[in-house]
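User: My collaborator sent over this chain with a note saying "see what the structure looks like." That's all I know about it. Can you take a look?
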Amino acid sequence: MKYFITFFLICSFTPSAKADYIIYLKNGNESSVKNYKIKKDEICFEMYGGEMCFPKTDILRIIEVKENTTPPEKLEIKNIDPNNNNIANSYAEKADKFYRDNKLDDAIEMLLKAMEYNPGDTLFPKNAGIMYYNNGNFVKAGELFSRVLEIDNKDIFAHEYLGRSYYYSNLLKKALTELNTAVDLDPGNSSLLKFKEKVENETRIENSFQKTSQEIFVIQYDYQTEFRFTSIILNTLLEAYWRIIRDLSYYSKKEFKIPVIIYTKKAFKDIEHPEWAGAIYDGKIRIPVENLNEQKDKELKDFIYHELTHAILYYYCNGRTLPVWLNEGIAQLEEINQRDIHAVKKLLKGKQLLHLKDREKSFSDLTDPKIVEIAYLQSYLAVNFILERYSKQALLDILKKLSENKSIEDAILTTLFIDYDQFEERCREYILR
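Assistant: Without extra context I'll predict from the sequence alone. Here is the result:
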């Protein structure tokens, strides 16, 4: 995050009864004054029976109060520093503070202001684009990364993340164009190359897919897939969405679309995913289908509830990557066909339990189906432990703290008043009891 660092003079102004100007200092203080004088490197005010002067660099702006006008939104801004870069950096500094306080909307607004004052700086639109991207607003992120490329069309980062934004917006051809450019500029970037190959493979598979958009979902499906599957899946998605956001107390005003891709079993095998996965969420919900019967219909609905929970948790936590055991535990808790907790504990009896700390990153590295089962069952019971021993509100408080960029250690300690090791020990006692 780019911002301007200045040592500020901390002071408190006494507002004047009849003011013609409002002075805003970079340290957050403000005051009303009758008039001011501009000197070489300072601006001086009549205050406290004398004259008080400050360096121009300490002053953010001066607003002139027009006659019969008092609301701040109607005041006219008067820039006092001819060097717009200083003002832009002041806005960037505010953006950094808002970002650290997890006020993303305010941080983005400040960066957009900074762009107005210094339109040639790529860091302001780049940082705003990153915030939109992390928050799942890929359309806005793409607009900002495009802005970066208007200034510097060889910015590798902007090409890559414009490509990724297009990808998650289901614009695969546009995504490939940007990713190819990024690879040309940085051919040694292995993660970029791998992602480009993934997009190429999916483009080949999904080239003939149909697309429909309903509510917050953009659904793509293979032409071989009967439309009735799409209808069943859409209805289940909508039912699941309202139940999950109610359970998580998450009612967002943010605009987002969740991509859902319906594959045949054969096509699903051709995309990158763990062998044992029945469906996946990797920024897109990917669901394989085949001829349905009553049992498979139940499984399909569980897949949908499970993967949609992952998607909503992504937005709930502002793009923050949750510990996988927590993410998977909550997703299982939202499935329609709930497991019997005593039966789950019985399944784990005599098994070698995993360390939760070791299962924070991913389950995709697991290859043994037996270990995969233990990982999922243990995650399910860890979340149930929080619900039973503490409360649903405790679980929501942990999620809230994680969404504010707190660590899982801090979230557990400040919510449950035990440290991570104690939490894991008590989880094991709960499972083995």
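A starting point for your reply to your collaborator: Residues 1-18, 66-82 have pLDDT under 50 and may be disordered.
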